[in-house]
Design goal:
Layout (H helix, E strand, L loop, with lengths): L3 E6 L6 H14 L4 E5 L2 E2 L6 H9 L6 H4 L7 E2 L5 H7 L6 H14 L2 E5 L14 H8 L3 E6 L4 H15 L3 E7 L6 H18 L4 E5 L16
Parallel strand pairs: 1-5, 1-6, 2-5, 3-4, 6-7, 7-8
């Protein structure tokens, strides 16, 4: 079975889009025919802004699958949780349509990286949270965190939920984009490595430095 990795964050603005894009570029540089997908995008009209970010970081033009809406089945204008944005537009997010789009990309490509929306408990509909969808799909999960204030609490809570729900966490990505105090950052990374090993002994941690160029390459070999 061709791999699908789901990339979620500890909350909104954890850096999922950047991580997804640089992960895809790493795989592309290794000769993997990879594509990215955004589960849904709110606060946007037309083409998904996050898909544009992915393609830029991959050094790629927009793909035919982007224009087919396979890479972002739901683009919603209101900047809110998907369930509210969809409700305002009279749309019901169909999780079967989401998984079918991923399966079609999986058929066409060697690897699919799916970027989520916010954190695990974000509601896709009034009845279905993102975590419910992930339990159903059982994709290998990569969690994006950072060093900003509150990240320790959010990261450990997310790992707790992942364990309780039986999700397959294969990696934790520490995004340095919001790192400030070096002492706090170093201690946070050390703590995360220890906690990840206790929750998921086989999972690995990768650090994404502050990107100075769109051509920066990050080594994800520990995860894949």
């Amino acid at each position: 079975m061709k791999p699908v990795y789901f990339i979620t964050g500890i909350d909104t603005d954890a850096g999922k889009s950047i991580v997804t894009g640089v992960f895809a570029r790493y795989l592309k540089e290794k000769g993997v025919n990879v594509i990215t997908q955004k589960l849904s995008q709110t606060g946007c009209v037309g083409m998904s802004e996050d898909i544009h970010t992915h393609r830029t970081l991959m050094n790629s033009e927009l793909l035919s699958e982007d224009y087919e809406a396979l890479t972002c089945p739901y683009v919603l204008e209101f900047p809110s949780s998907p369930h509210l944005a969809a409700n305002r537009e009279g749309v019901l997010i169909d999780t079967a349509l989401l998984s079918a789009a991923t399966a079609e990309l999986q058929r066409r490509f060697e690897c699919v990286l799916v970027e989520g929306v916010g954190g695990l408990m974000v509601p896709l509909t009034h009845d279905i949270n993102l975590v419910d969808y992930l339990v159903e799909c059982n994709y290998p999960l990569i969690l994006v965190t950072s060093g900003k204030i509150g990240s320790i609490n959010h990261t450990l809570l997310t790992l707790e939920v992942c364990v309780q729900k039986g999700l397959n966490v294969v990696g934790l990505v520490f995004n340095h984009f919001s790192s400030t105090n070096e002492i706090i950052t170093a201690d946070t990374i050390k703590l995360f490595r220890s906690k990840l090993a206790s929750y998921y002994p086989e999972a690995k941690m990768v650090e994404v430095p502050i990107m100075t160029s769109e051509n920066d390459l990050v080594d994800f070999s520990a995860i894949v």
